[in-house]
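Lay summary. Proteins are chains of building blocks that fold into shapes, and those shapes determine what they do. In this project we predict the shape from the chain. Here is one chain we studied, written as its sequence of building blocks.
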Amino acid sequence: MSDLGDHEAAEAHLLEALDLAAETGSRQGEAMWRAELGAHLLSTGALERAGKELNRALAIAREIGARRCEALVQIHLGALALEENYDSVDEALERVRAGLEIASDIQSGALETVGLLYLARVCRAQADRRRAREVLDQARRVARGTHDARLLRRVQAELRALDDERAQNR
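And here is the predicted shape, written in a compact code that computers can read:
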């Protein structure tokens, strides 16, 4: 939802969806909308709020066995760890790998692609551009299999950013 550009409107819609899930007693809906809200807040830089929502989503997802949601949250908690402290690569790596493992178990190419995008960022934080490139190439292959053009564009943007970074360091 954050891709729409209007972050305040996106947040309002996510909060509305979360309220509806809570009103109807949908724990799965609550977990997923909290995860989506946390991811949105992460993308806007509201890191403390993002962490709260993601951790609440993780607790609910684990309680009800919502593996897809758990994978999504683990991946975003990894991204959050990196955003909060660029030196937190070990925690970020652990979270992203946990999410990737679940994504693989449930055979979700879209989640696997998102996890690989964040794994590449962890590799870049470790100054391992070669490994980041390998991970992004894998993400591109997986994204192509999902037939999700938006996801493929995200991978291509990360590949361009990596190439630009390499060109600047020459």
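What the prediction tells us: The longest helix spans residues 149-168.
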